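## retry 2 of 3
previous attempt timed out at serialization; input unchanged, resubmitting
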Amino acid sequence: MKIDNSFQLFVFTQPEIFKDEKKFISQVFELGSSGIYLRKEKNSAYISSIFKNVNRKFHHKLIIPLSFYDENGFQKIKSIIHFKEKERTTLNLLKVPSDVGLSTSIHDLSEWSMLSDRFKLIFYSPVFESISKPNYKPKISLEELSLQIEKYRSTKEKLPQLIALGGINERNILQIKDAGFDGAALFGAMWNSLNPVNEFRKIKMIFDQ
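## retry succeeded, writing output
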Protein backbone atom coordinates (compact mmCIF):
# COMPACT_ATOMS: atom_id res chain seq x y z
CA MET A 1 0.00 0.00 0.00
CA LYS A 2 1.41 3.34 -1.06
CA ILE A 3 0.94 6.19 1.40
CA ASP A 4 0.93 9.82 0.29
CA ASN A 5 3.54 11.93 2.09
CA SER A 6 1.44 15.11 2.09
CA PHE A 7 -0.96 15.97 4.92
CA GLN A 8 -3.84 13.55 4.74
CA LEU A 9 -7.51 13.71 5.65
CA PHE A 10 -9.37 10.55 6.66
CA VAL A 11 -12.98 9.93 7.64
CA PHE A 12 -14.44 7.49 10.17
CA THR A 13 -18.01 6.42 9.44
CA GLN A 14 -20.61 5.90 12.11
CA PRO A 15 -21.21 2.30 13.23
CA GLU A 16 -24.84 2.67 12.16
CA ILE A 17 -25.96 2.64 8.54
CA PHE A 18 -27.56 5.85 7.36
CA LYS A 19 -29.39 6.99 4.25
CA ASP A 20 -27.22 7.79 1.21
CA GLU A 21 -24.05 6.65 3.01
CA LYS A 22 -22.69 4.88 -0.08
CA LYS A 23 -23.20 8.02 -2.13
CA PHE A 24 -21.47 10.06 0.56
CA ILE A 25 -18.44 7.73 0.59
CA SER A 26 -18.02 8.08 -3.17
CA GLN A 27 -18.36 11.87 -3.02
CA VAL A 28 -15.79 12.21 -0.24
CA PHE A 29 -13.30 10.09 -2.16
CA GLU A 30 -13.81 12.26 -5.23
CA LEU A 31 -13.10 15.32 -3.05
CA GLY A 32 -9.74 13.84 -2.07
CA SER A 33 -10.12 11.79 1.11
CA SER A 34 -7.01 9.77 1.89
CA GLY A 35 -9.10 6.93 3.31
CA ILE A 36 -12.40 6.03 4.93
CA TYR A 37 -12.67 3.64 7.85
CA LEU A 38 -15.90 1.63 7.63
CA ARG A 39 -16.81 1.11 11.28
CA LYS A 40 -19.29 -1.65 10.50
CA GLU A 41 -17.78 -4.57 12.42
CA LYS A 42 -21.08 -6.43 12.65
CA ASN A 43 -22.25 -5.91 9.07
CA SER A 44 -20.04 -7.77 6.62
CA ALA A 45 -22.77 -7.86 3.95
CA TYR A 46 -23.09 -4.08 4.01
CA ILE A 47 -19.33 -3.62 3.65
CA SER A 48 -19.41 -5.91 0.62
CA SER A 49 -22.14 -3.75 -0.90
CA ILE A 50 -19.96 -0.65 -0.45
CA PHE A 51 -17.23 -2.25 -2.53
CA LYS A 52 -19.79 -2.78 -5.30
CA ASN A 53 -20.91 0.85 -5.20
CA VAL A 54 -17.57 2.65 -4.81
CA ASN A 55 -15.30 3.08 -7.82
CA ARG A 56 -12.60 0.40 -7.88
CA LYS A 57 -9.90 3.06 -8.03
CA PHE A 58 -10.74 3.89 -4.39
CA HIS A 59 -10.88 0.33 -3.02
CA HIS A 60 -7.30 0.50 -1.74
CA LYS A 61 -8.28 3.52 0.36
CA LEU A 62 -11.10 1.76 2.18
CA ILE A 63 -10.16 0.80 5.73
CA ILE A 64 -11.94 -2.37 6.79
CA PRO A 65 -12.40 -4.10 10.17
CA LEU A 66 -10.35 -7.25 10.70
CA SER A 67 -13.59 -9.18 11.20
CA PHE A 68 -14.57 -8.58 7.56
CA TYR A 69 -11.40 -10.26 6.34
CA ASP A 70 -11.84 -13.14 8.73
CA GLU A 71 -15.20 -13.82 7.09
CA ASN A 72 -14.28 -13.09 3.46
CA GLY A 73 -10.63 -14.04 3.04
CA PHE A 74 -7.55 -11.90 2.61
CA GLN A 75 -7.01 -12.48 -1.09
CA LYS A 76 -10.24 -11.02 -2.44
CA ILE A 77 -9.83 -7.30 -1.72
CA LYS A 78 -6.62 -5.35 -1.27
CA SER A 79 -7.76 -2.66 1.13
CA ILE A 80 -6.37 -1.60 4.50
CA ILE A 81 -7.17 -3.80 7.49
CA HIS A 82 -7.84 -2.05 10.79
CA PHE A 83 -6.78 -3.79 14.00
CA LYS A 84 -8.31 -2.81 17.29
CA GLU A 85 -5.90 -2.82 20.22
CA LYS A 86 -7.09 -6.21 21.47
CA GLU A 87 -6.69 -7.65 17.95
CA ARG A 88 -2.99 -6.83 17.70
CA THR A 89 -1.90 -10.38 18.51
CA THR A 90 0.91 -12.28 16.83
CA LEU A 91 -1.55 -14.86 15.57
CA ASN A 92 -3.74 -12.27 13.86
CA LEU A 93 -0.76 -10.49 12.32
CA LEU A 94 0.74 -13.71 10.96
CA LYS A 95 -2.41 -14.61 9.03
CA VAL A 96 -2.42 -11.35 7.06
CA PRO A 97 -0.44 -11.34 3.77
CA SER A 98 2.59 -9.07 3.97
CA ASP A 99 1.44 -6.93 1.03
CA VAL A 100 -1.78 -5.89 2.80
CA GLY A 101 -1.61 -2.53 4.56
CA LEU A 102 -2.56 -2.38 8.23
CA SER A 103 -3.85 0.37 10.50
CA THR A 104 -4.53 0.50 14.22
CA SER A 105 -5.51 2.92 16.97
CA ILE A 106 -3.50 4.00 20.01
CA HIS A 107 -4.07 6.27 23.00
CA ASP A 108 -0.47 6.47 24.22
CA LEU A 109 2.09 7.93 21.82
CA SER A 110 4.84 5.62 23.15
CA GLU A 111 3.15 2.78 21.24
CA TRP A 112 3.77 4.55 17.93
CA SER A 113 7.39 3.51 17.52
CA MET A 114 6.74 -0.03 18.77
CA LEU A 115 4.28 -0.69 15.93
CA SER A 116 6.51 0.48 13.10
CA ASP A 117 7.48 -2.91 11.71
CA ARG A 118 4.09 -3.87 10.31
CA PHE A 119 1.56 -1.04 10.58
CA LYS A 120 1.33 1.73 7.99
CA LEU A 121 -1.27 3.97 9.63
CA ILE A 122 -1.60 4.80 13.33
CA PHE A 123 -4.64 6.70 14.55
CA TYR A 124 -3.87 8.53 17.81
CA SER A 125 -6.73 9.82 19.95
CA PRO A 126 -8.00 11.97 21.43
CA VAL A 127 -6.06 15.09 20.49
CA PHE A 128 -8.92 17.39 21.49
CA GLU A 129 -12.05 16.85 23.54
CA SER A 130 -14.26 14.50 21.57
CA ILE A 131 -17.23 15.91 19.69
CA SER A 132 -19.10 12.59 19.67
CA LYS A 133 -18.14 11.19 23.11
CA PRO A 134 -19.04 13.36 26.11
CA ASN A 135 -16.18 13.97 28.57
CA TYR A 136 -13.66 12.08 26.42
CA LYS A 137 -10.66 14.39 26.75
CA PRO A 138 -6.95 14.25 25.86
CA LYS A 139 -4.46 13.11 28.49
CA ILE A 140 -1.86 15.69 27.45
CA SER A 141 -1.91 18.98 25.59
CA LEU A 142 -1.30 19.32 21.87
CA GLU A 143 1.90 21.21 22.65
CA GLU A 144 3.24 18.26 24.65
CA LEU A 145 2.16 15.87 21.91
CA SER A 146 4.07 17.93 19.38
CA LEU A 147 7.24 17.70 21.48
CA GLN A 148 6.83 13.93 21.79
CA ILE A 149 6.28 13.56 18.05
CA GLU A 150 9.47 15.49 17.37
CA LYS A 151 11.37 13.30 19.85
CA TYR A 152 10.22 10.03 18.31
CA ARG A 153 10.94 11.24 14.78
CA SER A 154 14.47 12.18 15.79
CA THR A 155 15.21 8.76 17.32
CA LYS A 156 13.69 6.46 14.69
CA GLU A 157 14.24 6.77 10.96
CA LYS A 158 11.07 5.04 9.76
CA LEU A 159 7.74 5.39 11.53
CA PRO A 160 4.14 4.68 10.48
CA GLN A 161 2.00 7.60 9.35
CA LEU A 162 0.57 9.25 12.49
CA ILE A 163 -3.03 10.39 12.10
CA ALA A 164 -4.78 12.56 14.70
CA LEU A 165 -8.33 11.74 15.79
CA GLY A 166 -10.75 13.28 18.26
CA GLY A 167 -12.44 16.68 18.32
CA ILE A 168 -10.97 17.83 14.99
CA ASN A 169 -12.90 20.50 13.10
CA GLU A 170 -12.40 23.51 10.83
CA ARG A 171 -11.15 25.65 13.73
CA ASN A 172 -8.28 23.41 14.81
CA ILE A 173 -7.26 21.36 11.76
CA LEU A 174 -4.23 23.58 11.07
CA GLN A 175 -3.02 23.07 14.65
CA ILE A 176 -2.86 19.34 13.92
CA LYS A 177 -0.75 19.91 10.85
CA ASP A 178 1.58 22.29 12.71
CA ALA A 179 1.97 19.80 15.59
CA GLY A 180 3.71 17.31 13.31
CA PHE A 181 0.97 14.80 12.55
CA ASP A 182 0.89 13.26 9.08
CA GLY A 183 -2.85 13.73 8.84
CA ALA A 184 -6.16 13.98 10.63
CA ALA A 185 -9.33 11.89 10.80
CA LEU A 186 -12.79 13.40 10.96
CA PHE A 187 -15.71 11.92 12.83
CA GLY A 188 -17.90 14.11 15.05
CA ALA A 189 -17.42 17.24 12.94
CA MET A 190 -18.80 15.36 9.96
CA TRP A 191 -21.78 13.65 11.53
CA ASN A 192 -22.91 16.64 13.58
CA SER A 193 -23.13 18.62 10.36
CA LEU A 194 -26.33 18.96 8.34
CA ASN A 195 -24.26 18.32 5.20
CA PRO A 196 -21.28 16.00 5.89
CA VAL A 197 -19.94 16.27 2.33
CA ASN A 198 -19.82 20.06 2.46
CA GLU A 199 -18.19 19.87 5.90
CA PHE A 200 -15.46 17.63 4.50
CA ARG A 201 -14.96 19.96 1.54
CA LYS A 202 -14.71 23.01 3.80
CA ILE A 203 -12.16 21.42 6.14
CA LYS A 204 -10.01 20.07 3.32
CA MET A 205 -9.91 23.47 1.63
CA ILE A 206 -8.46 25.00 4.81
CA PHE A 207 -5.19 23.09 4.67
CA ASP A 208 -5.08 22.86 0.86
CA GLN A 209 -4.75 26.63 0.55
